[in-house]
Amino acid sequence: METAKKKFVFPSAFTILFVILIIAVGLTWIVPSGSYSKLTYDGINNQFVVKTYQQDDKTYPATKETLDQLNIKIDLNNFTEGTIKKPIAIPGTYQRVQQNPKGIGDIAESMIHGTIEAADIMVFIFTLGGMIGVINKTGAFNSGLMALARRTKGNEFMIVFSVSVLMVIGGTTCGIEEEAVAFYPILVPVFLALGYDAIICVGAIFLASSMGTAFSTINPFSVVIASNAAGIPFTEGIGFRAVGLVLGAACVIYYLYWYARKIKANPAFSYTYEDRESFREQYMKGFDPNAVVEFTVRRKLILALFCIAFPIMVWGVMAGGWWFPQMAASFLTITIIIMFISGLKEKEIVDSFTHGASELVGVSLIIGLARGVNLVLEQGMISDTILDYTSQLVSGMPPSLFILGQLVVFIFLGLVVPSSSGLAVLAMPIMAPLADAVGIPRFIVVSAYNWGQYAMLFLAPTGLVLVTLQMLNIPFNKWVKFVMPMIGALLVIGATLLIIQVSMYSH
């Protein structure tokens, strides 16, 4: 009797990141260690501080003359007004340093330290999970979903369309990334009630917001800080970015429409069809489409409070300077109000909150593990070496080849430094001056940074994608199959716009 072949199961997010962490440790033995001198602004003493590896810090007056002396073409106000807060790499200061390889013991230690560094976002996610647990216990989600399903019968895609447009706008204006995690608990059950699957939930939220962020127009966390680090106004090149935004958004919406029609016609077409039952169990627990659950005034008020939390969060990030502690506090405040009006007993409230938070423990730990990978690369001091090597690789090329080379470089750097603001202040002072040498404006390099980095962040395990997939129990290989056409669309649109800009502005 033949033994049945075991079906291959793609590794989980934890396993993928653990393997990447081991590879990162290995790279610290292979890639030469190196470091740029870094410039920071000391607002208390109104002076610049230059930190160089194994040398005493040097201080300089916070003046334009100092920036010119260091060959940093950035407006002084960007430092003094707090626009640029992270250390800036100083051009021409790269040096090889003593190799700093990490060992086996650093694997577990980096995981712990990465988790500690991610404490703020983890608390935010736990608070969000607790809020969802309480609202689920009140029956508000159940009754609200049933009412929505009845009202949207026959026009279900309009919900997907509306969410996608809002996420694209959120991405291009304020760079919704980690914050998008908050939208899954409210929108995933809605999409499931409309007859869609797990992948389309990620498409309408993560894919749409990331496409918007890739074609950032006024996003302060990517294009604005990158332009400032390049020494130019962020409005330069905004017209081309806006054109790319429209084209990118159209591609996402059409792709989601195509996919939605396919799974409506044949549910088995779904890329996550095999996992549909476990996914529905996770997000539609207790939801019975045939049950009659009254949508009472109390439940409407609870859902209204829940929905209000999200525009408050967006306002706080854009206008109030909020970060995860403030966002978590706002969600917790609204949760407490919901607790008082829920009509639940004290023990039911506490149990539902802790149960809801516990369901997102795995998601939170993924964030810590990803941060651990970044810590290994930083402490191994190989990120600056990679940046120096890639900058030399593209310097001196003809303009069109140079800008396409920059696009490829930023795709690669997006894996090494999966932070838009972090990559901007690290790479832009080095990469932007290369544009001067080949005779093209610096804003075209900013565009290459934006489009290249985000093409990688759709896939980068060290970014947000594994957090999202873990939250929705979607295997990474299924996501790759779904997202590759959109990465192709992004790169085609980006490369075309870059070539057009070079042909118009090279001299």
Automatic annotation (TrEMBL):
It is found in: Cell membrane. Keywords: Cell membrane, Membrane, Transmembrane, Transmembrane helix. Pfam families: DcuC. Its main location: membrane. It is a multi-pass membrane protein. GO terms for cellular component: plasma membrane. This is H+/gluconate symporter and related permeases. It comes from Cardiobacterium valvarum.
